[in-house]
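Whiteboard transcription, Tuesday session. T.W. wrote the structure tokens on the left side:
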């Protein structure tokens, strides 16, 4: 985008968000929460209060809990838990659904701003961060080059198609090879506007963006049995159940060399900071090397081998390279 268009795009964006994009996003989130059905709104508020309390208490040693948390406070949270359980039971709501309410509302609220800001920057990140995304995309694309490849890459939590350009630059030449899924319909609308989805058109081919929950989406019913690679770019920590998400990804990878790529350009410590700042949106950090090893020992049915260990939070490698975990699907 040339500087004049970029200035205009920025002005239009600020106008759409009431003069201040950050404040405008918060206002959109609040207004979406307010417009929920009353039982969902109450459940979402209780879920938020309980999650924030639990995240605040989790790092405390028992003595500090006794010293810092009053019995009245504990009682109030216990009462909230009971109230929430009742609403969830009455309306057959799961914790995943509650988590997804905040995800959907937050990403819908910020989708246009993220897409336009990416357009202004030419759909690339700062050079040192872009390098990390490029490396992850190259690994994902490489998996499509094997003799037994199916020619399919899945981008989970694809947003507005943030890594489509990087995948294409890494050699993903056929649009048909790419599928992106995101919970936010507005993110997906922006992705389709920017990168096209010929499936919406005459040919039935082309990039395929889907608005939906990765954990619920039935890929097989949609005609796709497996992918050569599945990439979570800045997304795994946003899903409601990390272990279930990895398990589902493993089940969708082709055997003998399919790749699972989990990347976060800003790194593991950055995600932990996001978790500390907003435990409702970011339930936990990304898996450490040790956690990957434990999960793989527990879930031998995944048939995944850890090929490249991610850096631990606060380590020099995390600061230098960000977070990158690469797993290979092996034969059962
Ligand atoms: C931090 S954004 C990252 C977007 C994009 N990958 C990028 O690198 O800019 C996380 C994305 O994950 C999506 N997401 C959250 N939960 C999801 C789920 N259960 N299924 C699919 N996408 C999900 C959100 O809607 C959001 O767009």
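and on the right, the sequence the group agreed on:
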């Amino acid at each position: 985008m040339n500087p004049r268009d970029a200035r205009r795009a920025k002005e239009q964006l600020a106008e759409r968000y009431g003069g201040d994009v950050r404040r405008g996003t918060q206002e959109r989130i609040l207004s979406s929460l307010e417009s929920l059905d009353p039982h969902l709104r109450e459940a979402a508020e209780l879920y938020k209060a309980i999650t924030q309390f639990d995240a605040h208490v989790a790092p405390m040693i028992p003595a500090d809990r006794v010293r810092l948390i009053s019995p009245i406070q504990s009682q109030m949270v216990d009462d909230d838990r009971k109230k929430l359980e009742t609403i969830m039971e009455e309306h057959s709501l799961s914790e995943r659904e509650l988590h997804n309410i905040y995800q959907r509302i937050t990403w819908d609220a910020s989708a246009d701003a993220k897409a336009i800001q990416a357009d202004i920057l030419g759909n690339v990140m700062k050079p040192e961060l872009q390098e990390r995304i490029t490396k992850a995309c190259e690994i994902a694309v490489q998996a499509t080059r094997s003799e037994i490849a199916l020619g399919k890459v899945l981008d989970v939590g694809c947003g507005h198609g943030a890594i489509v350009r990087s995948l294409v630059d890494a050699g993903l030449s056929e649009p048909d090879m790419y599928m992106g899924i995101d919970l936010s319909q507005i993110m997906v609308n922006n992705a389709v506007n920017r990168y096209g989805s010929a499936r919406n058109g005459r040919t039935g081919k082309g990039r395929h963006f889907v608005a939906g929950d990765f954990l619920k989406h039935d890929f097989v019913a949609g005609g796709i049995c497996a992918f050569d690679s599945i990439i979570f770019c800045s997304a795994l920590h946003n899903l409601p159940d990390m272990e279930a998400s990895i398990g589902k990804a493993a089940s969708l990878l082709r055997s003998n060399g399919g790749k699972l790529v989990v990347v976060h350009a800003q790194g593991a410590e950055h995600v932990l900071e996001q978790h500390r700042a907003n435990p409702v949106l970011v339930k936990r950090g990304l898996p450490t090397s040790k956690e990957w090893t434990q999960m793989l020992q527990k879930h031998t049915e995944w048939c995944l081998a850890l090929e490249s260990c991610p850096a631990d939070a606060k380590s020099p490698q995390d600061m230098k390279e960000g977070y990158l975990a690469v797993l290979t699907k092996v034969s059962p």
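Someone added at the bottom: Residues 103, 107, 156-159, 162, 181-184, 187, 213-215, 233-235, 238-239 surround S-adenosylmethionine (CB under 6 Å).
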